[in-house]
Design brief:
hydrolase; 4 domains; 8 helices; Collagenase (Catalytic Domain); Ig-like_fold; zinc; Immunoglobulin-like; metallopeptidase activity
C-alpha cells in the first residue's frame, strides 16, 4: 500500500486554533494524491475540463435565458453517539440556508460591498430533503446511526469511515440520485470535508461531511458557526469550487480558477473590516473575504460570484447531471396491497450441483400488513414453479423466502421470479413485482487439469470470478505470459481501495482415482513501495481450496511483498514482466481436498502496490502405492539402511502414538500423530543404530499393530 502521508495534515492542525474555521477538503485531497500519485493526472484533467466548461457556461449565459431552476434531493446521515442532538428542525434550518445562499436570496447579501454587488451569482439550485428512498419507499430524507460514546471521525482521505455501515457510519444512498450529507463529530477541530465527484473518490464516498455543531441555525449549533455556512462552503467544494485563496499558503502562485474572485494570499478568519488587503491584492477593494469559499465567520459570509456559479453549473450539468433528473424529491404513492420482490439472492453466479433452491427477498411495500402472496419462478423458458407464501409482514418490512427445489442439467440460466395476488387482491404496483438472476452449472473437470488463458473468453469456461466491489478484478492480458501470449492479472497499481478481495476460481474438479493432488503455476509480481519497508500493507496472493462451492475455504498458499515479487525493485509504472521475471510455485492440495470434489481460488487482496500475474496453471494427481491402499499403513523401505517412513493411507482418528523398538524390547523412538506430515507420513532415523531386527508398534485407542522391520547396510 502506498501509505497516505499525513505530515501536511499534522502541520495544519498545529498552526490553527480551535476557534478558527477549518475545512479538510484540500488536506484530504492531498492525502489521496500522496497515497495514489496517479490521481494527480486525473484531478488535473478534471480541473482543465472545469475551466473550459465554465467559460462556455459564461458565454451561454450571455446569449441564452437564465439556467433552469433545479431541485436536488438530499439525504442527511446523522452519525452520532446521541442522534437526538441533531433535530429535524435543525436539519430543516440547514436546508433553508442552502436554498437562500444558492439562490442569492440570503438577507445578508446586502452587506456585500457595492463594488462587488454586480458580481453576485445565483446558481438557481434548490435542495429538498428526499421524499423517497433508493428503493422508492417513503422517507423523510434523514438516516440516524448511533455510534459508540464519544466516537469521532477523521477527515483523512475524505472521512471514508463515516460513509460505510461496516465501519460504524452510514452507507451512502445512490450518489447518482442524491446528494449525501453526513452530519457527525469530526476530529481535529475540522468543521467539514467534501469528496467531490471527478477527483478519484469511490462513487459511494462522494458527498460532504459536516461537524454537527456547525450544521444549521438551531439546536446543537455553536456560537460562531451557527448560520449554516459550513454546509454552504462544503457543497461549494462538491460542485467543483476551490478555496478562494487556492491553498497555496500565501504564495500568490495559484488561483482558484475563477476570473471574478480577486487573487488572495491566504485564508481569512473572523469578520475582517472592508477593505482588506493582503500580499497578493494590495490595492482596494482588496480580497473578497465575505465569499462563501473563504474562512470568515458565518455572519460575514454572503456570496458566490457569477464565475463561481458558472463552474458549479458546469459540474452540475456535466459531472453530476443525474441529480437534476432525480425523482428523489417526489413523494411515493403507497398502495394498500403491494408485494415486492427485492432480489433473488440465490442461486447466483456459479452453482456446483444440479439441485437449485431459489431464495428471494419479499418486501411489503403496501400500507397494510401482508399475510399471503403467490410467488412464481421460471428457469429460461421452462415451466412455472409456484409457491404460496403465508405469514405476517408489517408495512415496509422484508422477509427471506425459500422456494421449491428444481433439478437442472449443465448450462446457463436466467431465473425470473415474481409475486401475484397479495392478500388475495390486485397488486397496487406491478412494477416492483419481479426480480431475476443469472447463474450457470458447469461440467466437472478431471485431472490432470491445465489452463494457460490462451483462449479469448475470460474467465475461461467453467471458471468463475468473485468481485464484490465491482471494481478492478482478475482480467486476461492478451500480450504477456510465461512462454505464451496470455495470462491472468489484477492491476493493483490502479486499484485505489485497500484490502479488497477478488477471487478467480477454477471449475469443480473431481480427483477420483487419485490419492494426492498438486498445483503448479507461474507467478510474476512487483510492488510500488520499497520492498524493504517495514509494516507496509502489501498486495497479497492467496490460494484457497473450497469443497463446498465457495461457502468455506482452506488457505494453502499465502505470499506478499518481498516474498511474492519477481521484480526486485520498486516500480512506479505498471509492471509488465519479462521472460525472466516469472517464478514457478507449487502447492500440495492433498490434505485440503479430503479426496473429494474441489475448486481452487486464486485470491488477490489489493493494497495499491502493483500488478500480479498468474499463468500456466496445472493441477495433477498422483496414485498411491496400491499396497498402501490395501494395508492402510506401510513401513518403508524394509529392509532399510537408515531412514524409515511410516505412511498412512488415511490418518486414523484413534491413533495415539507410533513407537520404534529394537529386538530386546528397548524403546528407540516414539512420535505422536501430530508428527504426521501433509503426505500422511512420519519419519524415523536408524542411521546410528546397529543392524538387526526392529519393531514398529502402532498404538490405537483400543488396539495395537506391530510391524517387523530389518536394518541392513
Amino acid at each position: 500500500m502506498r501509505t497516505a502521508i499525513t505530515i501536511l495534515f499534522t502541520i495544519c492542525c498545529c498552526l490553527t486554533v480551535t476557534a478558527q474555521r477549518k475545512c479538510g477538503t484540500a488536506v484530504a485531497l492531498q492525502q489521496q494524491i500522496k497515497a495514489h500519485p496517479q490521481l494527480q493526472q486525473l484531478i488535473a484533467g478534471h480541473e482543465h475540463n472545469m475551466i473550459q466548461g465554465q467559460q462556455r457556461q459564461r458565454l451561454r449565459a450571455q446569449i441564452e435565458a437564465l439556467p433552469r431552476q433545479v431541485t436536488i434531493p438530499v439525504v442527511v446521515h446523522v452519525v452520532l453517539d446521541d442522534t437526538s442532538a441533531v433535530t429535524h428542525a435543525q436539519i430543516l434550518s440547514q436546508l433553508a440556508v442552502l436554498n437562500q445562499d444558492y439562490n442569492a436570496a440570503n438577507t445578508d447579501i446586502s452587506q456585500v460591498p457595492a463594488v462587488w454587488q454586480s458580481l453576485i451569482g445565483n446558481t438557481r439550485i434548490n435542495f429538498c430533503l428526499a421524499q423517497r428512498t433508493p428503493d422508492n419507499e417513503p422517507t423523510n430524507g434523514i438516516v440516524k446511526v448511533k455510534t459508540a460514546t464519544g466516537k469521532s471521525f477523521s477527515i483523512s482521505n475524505g472521512s471514508p469511515d463515516v460513509k460505510y455501515n461496516s465501519t460504524g457510519g452510514s452507507d451512502a444512498w445512490d450518489t447518482h440520485r442524491y446528494l449525501n450529507i453526513w452530519v457527525t463529530r469530526l476530529s481535529g477541530n475540522f468543521l467539514g470535508v467534501a469528496a467531490p465527484p471527478g477527483n478519484g473518490y469511490p462513487q459511494e464516498q462522494e458527498g460532504v461531511v459536516v461537524q454537527y455543531t456547525g450544521f444549521g441555525t438551531t439546536g446543537s449549533v455553536g456560537g460562531t458557526y451557527n448560520l449554516g455556512r459550513t454546509t454552504t462552503h462544503e457543497i461549494g467544494h462538491f460542485f467543483g469550487l476551490k478555496h478562494i485563496w487556492a491553498d497555496d499558503s500565501g504564495g500568490c502562485t495559484d488561483d482558484d480558477g475563477i476570473a471574478d474572485t480577486p487573487l488572495q494570499g491566504d485564508n481569512s478568519f473572523g469578520c475582517p473590516t472592508f477593505p482588506k488587503l493582503d500580499n497578493c491584492t494590495n490595492k482596494a477593494p482588496g480580497i473578497m473575504f465575505m465569499n462563501y469559499m473563504d474562512y470568515s465567520d458565518d455572519r460575514c459570509m454572503h456570496l458566490f460570484t457569477a464565475g463561481q456559479v458558472d463552474r458549479m453549473r458546469y459540474v452540475l450539468e456535466n459531472t453530476v447531471a443525474s441529480l437534476m433528473t432525480s425523482d428523489g424529491c417526489t413523494p411515493v404513492q403507497q398502495y394498500p396491497a403491494d408485494a415486492a420482490l427485492m432480489a433473488v439472492t440465490a442461486p447466483t453466479g456459479k452453482v456446483c450441483g444440479p439441485a437449485i433452491q431459489p431464495v428471494v427477498t419479499l418486501r411489503n411495500k403496501g400500507s397494510q400488513p401482508l399475510t399471503r402472496t403467490d410467488i412464481y419462478y421460471r428457469l429460461n423458458n421452462g415451466p412455472l414453479v409456484t409457491y404460496r407464501w403465508t405469514g405476517q409482514l408489517a408495512p415496509l418490512t422484508s422477509t427471506t423466502v425459500t422456494l421449491p427445489v428444481s433439478n437442472i442439467p449443465i448450462g446457463s440460466y436466467h431465473l425470473k421470479a415474481y409475486t401475484q395476488s397479495p392478500n388475495g387482491t390486485t397488486d397496487g404496483n406491478v412494477a416492483n413485482d419481479s426480480a431475476s438472476t443469472r447463474f450457470h452449472y458447469d461440467a466437472e473437470a478431471k485431472l490432470p487439469f491445465a489452463e494457460g488463458f490462451e483462449a479469448d473468453s475470460f474467465p475461461p469456461p467453467g471458471w468463475d470470478l468473485y468481485n464484490p466491489d465491482r471494481s478492478f478484478t482478475w482480467e486476461r492480458n492478451r500480450e504477456v505470459g510465461h512462454n505464451s501470449h496470455a495470462s491472468a492479472l489484477v492491476r493493483n497499481l490502479g486499484y485505489n481501495v485497500n484490502d479488497q478481495t477478488d477471487d478467480l476460481l477454477t471449475p469443480v474438479i473431481n480427483p477420483q482415482g487419485y490419492d494426492s493432488v498438486f498445483l503448479f503455476f507461474d507467478v510474476a509480481a512487483a510492488v510500488y513501495s520499497d520492498p524493504r519497508d517495514i509494516g507496509n500493507a502489501w498486495d497479497t496472493l492467496q490460494i484457497l481450496v473450497t469443497t463446498d462451492c465457495r461457502q468455506t475455504g482452506k488457505m494453502v498458499y499465502r505470499k506478499w511483498g518481498p516474498n511474492l515479487i519477481t521484480h526486485p525493485d520498486p516500480l512506479t509504472t505498471e509492471f509488465v514482466p519479462t521472460a525472466r521475471e516469472w517464478r514457478r510455485d507449487s502447492v500440495d492440495l492433498t490434505a485440503a481436498i479430503h479426496k473429494g470434489k474441489f475448486q481452487v481460488a486464486f485470491r488477490n487482496i489489493s493494497n495499491s502496490e502493483n500488478n500480479i500475474y498468474i499463468d500456466n496453471i496445472n493441477i495433477v494427481g498422483k496414485m498411491i502405492n496400491p499396497l498402501l491402499r490395501e494395508a492402510e499403513v506401510l513401513v518403508t523401505p524394509n529392509p532399510t539402511d537408515g531412514l524409515v517412513w511410516v505412511t498412512f493411507f488415511d490418518i486414523p482418528a484413534d491413533l495415539l502414538q507410533v513407537s520404534l523398538y529394537n529386538s530386546t524390547g528397548q524403546l528407540i523412538a516414539s512420535q505422536p500423530p501430530a508428527s504426521i506430515n501433509s503426505s500422511n507420513r512420519m519419519t524415523f532415523n536408524l542411521v546410528n543404530e546397529p543392524n538387526g531386527v526392529y519393531f514398529v508398534k502402532l498404538i490405537y485407542r483400543n488396539r495395537a499393530n506391530t510391524i517387523k522391520l530389518m536394518k541392513v547396510r
